[in-house]
Amino acid sequence: MTRYVLGRIATLVPMLLVVCALTFALLDLAPGDPALRIATQLANGPPDLSRVDELREELGLDDPLPVRFGRWLGGVVQGDFGRSAIDGSPVTERVLDALGPTLLLTGSGLLVSIVGGLVLGATVGLLPDRGPGRLARRAIMAMTGVSFVIPAFLVALGGLWLFAVVLGWFPAGGMSDPGEPRTIGATLEHLVLPAVILGIGTNLGVFTRLIAAGVEEQMDAEFVRNARSRSIGRRRIVSAHVVRTSIIPLIAQVGASMAYLVGGAYAVEVVFGWPGLGRMAVEAAQDQDVTVILAVTVISGLVVVAGNLLADVLLGVIDPRVRLARSDS
Amino acid sequence: MQRVSLRLLAVLAALAMLSAACGSDSDDTSGASGSEADVAAESEEAADADDADEGESDAPADADEGSSEGQRLIVGTQFLDDFVSRSIVGFDTPPAYSSVLAQFVFDGLLELDPTQGYLPVPDLAESFEVSDDGLVYTFTLREDVTWHDGEPFTSADVVFTLTAALDPANQARTAADLAAVASVTAPDDVTVVVELSRPFAPILQSLSLPIHPEHLLGAELEAGTPPGETDYAAAPIGTGPYMWAEYRPGEQLLLDANPRYYKGAPAIPEAVLVDVADYDVAAARLAAGEIDLSEVTGAQLGLVDGLDGYAVNTVPSTNVFAISLNVADPLLEDPRVRIALNNLVDRQALIDLIEGGLGEPALSPLINTSVEIETGTSLATDVEAGAALLEDAGWVDEDGTWTVDGEPVSLRLDDGFAPQLAEVVASSLRDQGIDVQLNTGDYSDIFGQLFADPSGFQLFTYSFGAPTDPDSIYILFHSQATLANGGFNAFAYANDDVDAALDRARDETDVAARAEAYAAFQEAAAADPAYILLHTAPVHMVIADSLDGWDPGLVEYQFVRFLWWNVEEWTKS
Predict the structure, then answer these.
(1) What is the pLDDT of residues B132-177, one digit of tens each?
(2) Which residues pair with B412 in a beta bridge?
(3) Model confidence over A79-132: pLDDT tens digits?
(4) What is the tens place of the pLDDT at every residue in A212-264?
(5) Which residue of A114, A166, A191, A193 is the best one to mutate when testing the B interface, meaning the one whose CB has the most B CBs within 10 A?
(6) 3-state secondary structure of B323
């Protein structure tokens, strides 16, 4: 097992390197002179053009791209993302501060979509395709369709207005009430709405459909018919056999949808004033603070890759065939 | 735990379905919000009936918390992290938007008083004198001011702050505003003498920059730590009405009333600046009753108009939107062409399409400044006058398309911050037969390119009017205010009458004499325009009815900075 995990990690390292290199190169391709841009940002008036040359030297912008990338990567490997070009603050500290809230929100949103997907999916899979059951099935499918059609940002804005403003059930933003202490209770209270919206807005639909398809298929499978013939209760069959079997594709799907989830979390963070990486990325993009954008991208890549890895490992634990198949390839 | 979240999810899922079914028809839901608002109104009435009981005056949002939020000022703001990371020791003077925070935590030698036409009045300085030659400013400081940590405030702090702001090593953004300062000295603990190298009337406004404590920041700067990385920047100490309590990055900044504030402790014991990502989020948090006030734009007015417990205050702005003209470009050399462009642009379309009808045409670069002058009309929208001027200048109208030397005219409009505005301007000029190619991009990129080499530009969207002192236009119009000299006159605009009037306005300390000089400037600038002047738009502040004592005055450069000028006098019921 350890060998398997290490093997998986080994394949992910080059992937992360590619992400880093691509991000770095893409930001480098952006039109305009970064030194001039920073000087313009810093100045209260027109930039001092001699300062532009100084900045270029300070930031080593005249070196070829691979040299700059190597220098930056050297820092990143040692956990140093450099300093913000705009306000000089150390970026690593800021990014790590924002990582906690992002992980909390992403994890909770994922939990919501998994639990919701299981329940709704099993319900859909078991409901008869006629009469009122058919209506309920359709309603659930239509609802979960929300996450396919509407961007997470809009789901978040709509949810904010409905549940926080109109119904007033939840706070409308932040991680604590203005001026109140940041207690665990307050954090949870503020977490519920964004997490539920994130769950619904990203993966609930996919997960529901996945489970529903699995349940439908397996209710006809031989082992289920056997179990039925042994007059095991329907509820027991579903929970013990059918859902358990459908969990494997679900976990695989979780791994595959990590990037979508993290992207959705960033949209939700902006709308709910959740002090995570997404908010930071948006502000950094507005300020053209390249160091921060790079750091957020790399950390987000890490989160996605770590989620992938976790799903893979979990699959390997549950189903040894996966382990074998993947270590062969 | 799982069971609870399942049940919750089921309820939420059902509601989400409901909301999807209702679509965007917000009227369907007004019944629900109305009943909640009624509850809020009732609790407010209860509080009015029993003034002593402050705990009962809660807004609806914290009804489930049961805390006594009545005595906390909650301000929704954007760019909170920018305020904190950049402004505190950026030595930003009030013209910078970041100084919103400075108004809570810091004081300056002087402050701009909305009740006195935004002229600088004494703040930390008790009084000041200006020598007859306008070169020596002597400030007598208050003796009853202490820092938030209890240390006395003295002239040494003022000398320290001004010296640090002028030190190139600190890269203070205010350094340019203070360029006329030759020396700052302190003969004794309560006297500061600022000597200028040349007469410079606007220096008084620049001297309203926040004063920082030498005993806390001095050693760190001395050791070569950049201002933004000092320990002081993480929890600054000022002399202002509110004291720094706790900063939660990306979320909120908590401030406590300063019991030692020299004007008396603020009536509201706590203030919280809450970060709102954008105006839509601000509107939602206002509607949820979580914040007491925030700025919104015309686009959110529909959401906040008639909101129970709040009123929308529309406040005039000094900000003028304009199109900068490259006077060196062969097509734009002739002043008649530049006047004609002013006549041809459809200002009302801009106001209607971008500001929701709430704006005024700007026919002078000086709008709502501290000097009152009449605006001329020669630049007003008048399509026939514009066409006549173009013909005078040798342009030929060929079937509705303007040509020069037989070639159809095409101008490039670059924009780095207002794409919508650029689009409307371009289309209104196209309607008049002048082809406009639009090039929009990122702010720092486009401005960076302009500053590095302006020669390739023709039209350029711009906005100005930051400080209320009319001298703010000097750096736009004076021939000496080139980019190389640190000015904003990117296209080397030069007009002798404009120069003379602007110089005179700097030398004169008498308000009436300055007004005359600016009237002369305006006349000369209208005959030889450097800009297509577009419009000025007000700012919309949504303020809770429970707040009292505020005076929005004037809003500067889109950012509400004057609102806080008397925050220590505000009360919350």
Answers:
(1) 888 999 999 999 999 999 999 999 999 999 999 888 777 776 776 7
(2) B437
(3) 888 877 766 677 888 888 899 999 999 999 999 999 998 888 888 877 777 777
(4) 888 877 777 777 777 777 777 777 777 767 777 778 888 888 888 888 888 88
(5) A166
(6) strand
Residue A37 pLDDT greater than 90, yes or no: no
- Report the gap between the CA of B524 and the closest CA in chain A (Å): 25
> Rounded to whole angstroms, how far apart are CA atoms B289 and B519?
47
Query: Who among A40, A115, A176 is closest to B444 (CB)?
Result: A40
Which residue type is seen at B43? S
AA letter at A327: S
**Closest to B304 (Cα-Cα) out of B555, B544, B550, B73:** B544
Contact A157 B452 (CB under 8 A): no
- Taking Cα atoms as reference points, which of A29, A303, A243, A221 lies closest to residue A118? A243
As given in the structure block, the two tokens for residue A59 are 């930031």
Whether A82 and A112 share a structural domain: no
Q: Is A196 on the interface with B (CB under 8 A)?
A: yes
Q: Are residues A102 and A141 in the same domain?
A: yes
Among B273, B287, B66, residue whose Cα is nearest residue A174: B273
How far CA B187 is from CA of A264, B42, B111, B155, B211, in Å, comes to 61, 60, 23, 9, 18
For chain A, the first-to-last Cα distance in angstroms comes to 16
> Using an 8 Å Cβ cutoff, are A291 and A82 in contact?
yes
Distance CA B328, CA B489 (A): 12
Which one of B272, B281, B300 would you mutate to disrupt binding with A, by most A Cβ within 10 Å of its Cβ? B281
**Pair A170, A243 in one domain:** yes
Which of B92, B151, B157 lies closest to B125, judged by CA? B157
- Closest by CA to B275, choosing from B100, B89, B36, is B100
- A3 burial (CB, 10 Å; 0-12 / 13-18 / 19+) is exposed
The ipTM estimated for the assembled molecules is: 0.80
**What is residue B493's three-state secondary structure?**
coil
Q: Within an 8 Å CB–CB cutoff, is residue A94 touching chain B? A: yes
CATH number of domain containing A313? 1.10.3720.10
Check B252 against A32: CB less than 8 A apart: no
B-chain residues near A90 (CB < 8 A) = 229
Give B-chain residues touching A201 at CB under 8 angstroms: none
Take residue A94 and report the two structure tokens written for it.
């800021």
Question: How many structural domains does chain A have?
Answer: 2
Assessment of whether the complete model's pTM goes beyond 0.90: no
d(Cα B433, Cα B428) in Å, to the nearest integer?
A: 9
Q: Which of residues 229-268 of A touch B (CB under 8 A)?
A: none
Domain boundary among A42, A68, A91: A91
